Amino acid sequence: MMNETKVMEFVLIGFSDFPDLQIPLFVFFFLTYLVILTGNVLLMTIIRLHRHLHIPMYFFLSILSFSETCYTFTVIPKMLVNLITEKKSISFTGCAAQMFFFIGFAGTNCILLTAMGYDRCVAICKPLHYRVLMNNTVCSQLVAFAVMTGFTLSLINTYIIFTLPFCGEKEINHYFCDMRPVIQAACTQNNETEIVIFIICIVVLCVPFLLIILSYILIFNTILKIPSTEGKRKAFSTCASHLTVVVVHFGCASITYLRPKSAYSLEEDTLISVTYTVVTPLLNPVVYSLRNKDVQLALRKSLGRKLCTWMT
Hints:
Elements: H1 2-5, E1 9-12, H2 22-49, H3 56-73, H4 76-84, E2 89-91, H5 92-125, H6 130-133, H7 136-162, E3 171-172, H8 179-184, H9 191-224, H10 229-257, H11 266-291, H12 293-311
Parallel strand pairs: 1-3
Antiparallel strand pairs: 1-2
Helix pairs in contact: 2-3, 2-4, 2-11, 3-5, 3-11, 5-7, 5-9, 5-10, 7-9, 9-10, 10-11, 11-12
């Protein structure tokens, strides 16, 4: 028991197996992180400044962008530091905090994507009741529910994992304190803990995803009843961006957290984790900027105003 209390820090192995790629990886992830921050901050700013974007769809999008920004902040800066330093350690408390905020924001994002699917369902299936069903109070309550649920489940997850005994081996075969690598660093393998964590992952990933699927079944059923091809195209175009982000977000997360233990591979898990910790936050502003005409119009107006200011 004495040895268990002496673990004060962990060593994040990360990308140590590729010593020649440390600098190239640092440059790649640093530039990607700058794009993520710029894209999400720009998207939030545009939504804030343009009144025609002050509707539930873009309200949820701005909250999602903020959550994605915080989500990447919990992982990428530490990963960048570890890529250019020899000591790749993280304190016991820092590891617990990183896991808590990472899972909290990840769970919040899952529920926010569900709320966005519900918003599109109401807009297409119940257009006459949209303003009543999706008023400011309802939208705020959905966001509050997303945050509270995400961080409550995260607190449970983090508490269960960090009450495990840690002694001797302190290496975490990952570039951040993710659940399964930290559990594997524990002194004893606790099957009950892994089962509880797996159930929570199912709740966080499967329940929101099934609700999104239900929303899109109702949406597609309504779209099929629209007589004109143009009407069908316009209705579906409002969902395309959201659907793209949902597929990537839930697909990558499910591969990582819902795989059976026998199929688990640390190398594969590291590569997949890059997808949902780096690529997905990058995808959000890019997809919504390129595929959404309202955002494109607001962006052109903002850039036009700045250009005129500079010229004068």
